[in-house]
């Protein structure tokens, strides 16, 4: 399972940006932006499982990324992918960070999101 810490380290080392925590009400919601344009390319949020249609109590980490719509349509058929949480569902996708999506695929999708938001 990809931990939040490992994901934060990957983003910092590959994109040279640090997490921003803009909401006091949601202190674990981490936003990542391009240095120049300040556009978001990634959001990590801990969300109640029931709010996103998952069984069980408690929170789970989600990763929101921008992707091409045709890729989103196919990915949402697979385990671990959901319609984007609080984002445009045509252009953004949520990945449940529960181990169901391999690291390599998450990192590849992060790269796509970074390029699409430049």
Automatic annotation (TrEMBL):
Highest taxon in the source lineage: Bacteria
Database matches in Pfam families: YjbR
Protein name stated in the entry: MmcQ protein
Organism in which the protein naturally occurs: Chelonobacter oris
Species classification: Bacteria, Pseudomonadati, Pseudomonadota, Gammaproteobacteria, Pasteurellales
């Amino acid at each position: 399972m990809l931990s939040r810490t490992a994901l934060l380290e990957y983003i910092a080392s590959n994109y040279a940006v640090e997490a921003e925590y803009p909401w006091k009400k949601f202190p674990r919601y981490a936003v990542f932006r391009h240095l120049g344009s300040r556009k978001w390319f990634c959001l990590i949020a801990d969300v109640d499982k029931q709010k996103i249609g998952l069984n069980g109590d408690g929170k789970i980490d989600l990763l929101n990324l921008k992707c091409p719509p045709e890729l989103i349509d196919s990915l949402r058929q697979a385990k671990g992918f959901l319609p984007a949480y609080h984002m445009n569902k045509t252009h953004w996708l949520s990945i449940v960070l529960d181990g169901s999506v391999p690291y390599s695929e998450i990192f590849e999708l992060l790269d796509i999101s970074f390029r699409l938001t430049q």
